[in-house]
Amino acid sequence: MLILSAIQVEDMLNEADLSVNTLTESFTSIVEHMQAINDHLLALDSCEIRDEALTCCSETTDKIQSSIIAFQFYDRMQQCLQHVTSNLKGLSELVEDPDRLYNPTEWRQFQHQIRSRYTMESEKLMFDAIVEGKSVGEALAIKNTHQEEDQSDNIELF
């Protein structure tokens, strides 16, 4: 059942990638067209209509940039779900082998492998909180506090 869950998540990620790739290509094309329109407008003599059109181009380009930044959410979600599927597969392998299942060293190694895959600080903080025995609610609160503190940057590098 663990493997089935991991496969289902991976399958949805693969399907979502196709949609996101289409959106990315569309945004790239829109940016190129906006730049061409902007260049053509700049070649025209200055007038009120041209200036309004240039303002629209600028505002549209800003909106596109905001949309591209919003795509970072998808990247974070995808990375998190990839970690979940890896963890589910690892857990499945661990519990199917009785020699490993009842071996505390195997569990510590598994926990170390899980944490070593995390690249986002928020994931590491949640993992550490759970390993320390905190509740799910407390772990989420720690993650949320971390994200609020970093909200001024608005982007978490991973």
What would you note in describing this structure?
The structure is a single chain. With 158 residues, this protein is an all-alpha fold. The chain has one domain. Helices cover 84% and strands 0% of the residues. It has six helices and no strands. The longest helix is centred in the middle third of the chain and has 48 residues, at 48-95. The two termini are 30 Å apart.
Q: Give the integer mean of the pLDDT values.
A: 89
Helix fraction, binned, reads over 70%
Number of helices: 6
Q: Would you identify the regions where 5 or more consecutive residues have pLDDT less than 50?
A: none
Number of strands: 0
Q: What overall geometry do the principal axes of the alpha carbons give?
A: elongated
Distance between the termini: 30 Å
Order of helices and strands: HHHHHH
